[in-house]
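TICKET: design request
STATUS: open
ATTACHED STRUCTURE:
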């Protein structure tokens, strides 16, 4: 599978623990707000289809996202930030998210390296806490 611009990490915990730790880390960060949570497995089940556990949590920090959108409004397609937690066919739990540096190139963002590096560092810390 081609995962251009996607960073994926393997969790050392089960699906529910990984997701709850991720959510807790985000909720306990005063700079972040959870915007939405989607349970793709439940949505599939509602129409009689099966899907391995798959959830996404969307969250943001307008102080960081807004300057990026002021620079290139199309990044609004990829904001707020999203982290996907899923269990693959082999039972391996993973977390995946968009690489902010890929989004920089995708949307042609200029002169925002400090913000992009801050976002990249935060996403790395948040996901490391969820999988550890």
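STATUS: resolved
RESOLUTION: sequence designed for all positions
ATTACHED SEQUENCE:
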């Amino acid at each position: 599978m081609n995962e251009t611009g996607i960073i994926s990490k393997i969790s050392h915990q089960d699906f529910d623990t990984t997701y709850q730790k991720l959510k807790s880390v985000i909720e306990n960060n005063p700079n972040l707000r959870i915007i939405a949570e989607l349970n793709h497995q439940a949505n599939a089940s509602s129409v009689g289809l099966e899907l391995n556990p798959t959830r996404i949590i969307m969250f943001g920090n307008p102080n960081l996202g807004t300057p990026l959108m002021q620079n290139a409004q199309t990044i609004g397609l990829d904001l707020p930030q999203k982290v996907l937690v899923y269990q693959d066919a082999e039972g391996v739990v993973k977390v995946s998210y968009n690489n902010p540096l890929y989004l920089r190139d995708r949307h042609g963002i200029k002169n925002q390296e400090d913000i992009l590096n801050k976002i990249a560092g935060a996403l790395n810390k948040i996901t490391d806490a969820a999988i550890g």
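CLOSING REMARK: The chain has a mean pLDDT of 96. The radius of gyration is 15 Å.
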